Amino acid sequence: MEKMVIEGGRPLRGAVSVSGAKNAALPIMAGCLLGGGRHVLRNVPRLRDISTIVRIMEQLGVRFDEGEDFLGVDASDLSGYEAPYDLVRTMRASILLLGPLLARQGKARISLPGGCAIGARPVNLHLRALVAMGADMHLDQGYIHATAGRLKGADIFFDIPTVTGTENIMMAAVLAEGRTVLRNAANEPEVKDLADLLRAMGAQIEGDGGDIITIEGVESLKGVEHTIIPDRIETGTFMIAAAMTGGDVSISGCRPEHVGALMEKLKSAGVGVEVVPGCIRVQGSEEIRGVDIKTMPFPGFPTDLQAQFMALMCVARGSSLIRETIFENRFIHVSELKRMGADIEINGNQALVRGRERLSAAPVMATDLRASACLVLAGLAAEGGRTEVSRIYHLDRGYEALDVKFQGLGAAIWREKE
């Protein structure tokens, strides 16, 4: 097991390029199960979660080939229908295999998924929608067992917007008989990227990017080439890191329209943000002001940037109120920030952060993916020695070579064995 070691206090300067979006790549790879033929995916990030879904899909009969700038996926000989616990337990997104397998194979056996310990994130919305489309569903010994003939189109209303639920049912519906309407659907960019892939494969989908998505089922889909969108969470993480260290960083390969909520909050905090096509330049300020945030579905402030933004507010002037409305357990990182001198008070789903002049280096432990990034950012800004972040396997699930990219910006950061 490895840890990240950081000697903070160095402003980040230079240019960095963003990798492909993990949260787009995973559903898109699952979507490849729906069509015979070979798919060519570009801008696929090299991450632990990607390796995990490859291993699961290989057990289903999917063939992969890889080049320097592409991943080939061929599901022509899809034969399996089970995603076992020993692989699924590490990755929440494995539930995305349920809809495609049920639509293509007529059956699926998926272990209830694991992943980050940030909240319950129940899959009942997925299961209820598939039952409405004609699936027979039951749970047994930690597995979801699902069978169906050809799924039937249905009118589905999600009680709350769910990204993976929207993606799962959209994939199931493209091969269903008749029309499926998803209401109160998620409109995150990753949902739209999946819809773009499915349309290229021959699916008939309208309304993605809004809260009502309509799908007309088709008989079959074909293999295509598709480029994954850039990772908006990685983009935001570099933006916050530049602001937090008083640096000057140009972030390329990103889509500024995907991080609009963060840009506005950074500007309100006194950070310089300049946008040119495909690039965002962030210049830190000598004095960061405290601002309030509330996590919301896109285009609101993303929950996946809440922990990183909290780290920034720890060194801001004044106080800030952070409200987490998406996941109930997403303040686990607070106790570790306090070890570095942060002044944070939690009350239910709210955290009051009283800014300090500086954070102090300390040994800390990551508890989930985004908390890992939060602690790395805190270490980059901390003074008084080395910050050591243990259990960084969480970090490698969602960030491609983050330490190498920070090194390219002048940070003193490296890995060591625990």
What is the gist of this entry?
With 418 residues, the chain is of the alpha/beta class. The chain has 14 helices and 24 strands.
Descriptive terms for the model:
single chain, alpha/beta, UDP-n-acetylglucosamine1-carboxyvinyl-transferase, Chain, 418 residues, four-stranded mixed sheet
General description of the model:
- The chain is α/β, with parallel strands linked by helices and 418 residues long.
- The protein folds into two domains: 2-19 and 230-417, Alpha-beta prism (UDP-n-acetylglucosamine1-carboxyvinyl-transferase, Chain); 22-227, Enolpyruvate transferase domain (UDP-n-acetylglucosamine1-carboxyvinyl-transferase, Chain), CATH 3.65.10.
- Helix content is 31%, strand content 25%.
- It has 14 helices and 24 strands.
- It has helices spanning 22-31, 48-59, 85-88, 98-105, 124-132, 163-173, 189-201, 232-244, 260-268, 306-313, 334-339, 369-381, 393-398, 402-408; strands spanning 2-7, 13-17, 38-42, 63-66, 71-74, 82-83, 107-111, 136-140, 143-147, 155-157, 179-183, 204-206, 212-216, 225-227, 248-252, 272-276, 279-283, 293-294, 319-323, 343-347, 350-354, 363-365, 386-390, 412-417.
- Strands 22-23-1-24 form a four-stranded mixed beta sheet. The protein has a four-stranded mixed beta sheet with strand order 2-15-17-16. A four-stranded mixed beta sheet has the order 4-5-3-14, covered by helices on one side.
- Strand 16 and strand 17 form a beta hairpin.
- The longest helix is centred in the middle third of the chain and has 13 residues, at 189-201.
- The model is unreliable at 115-121 (pLDDT under 50).
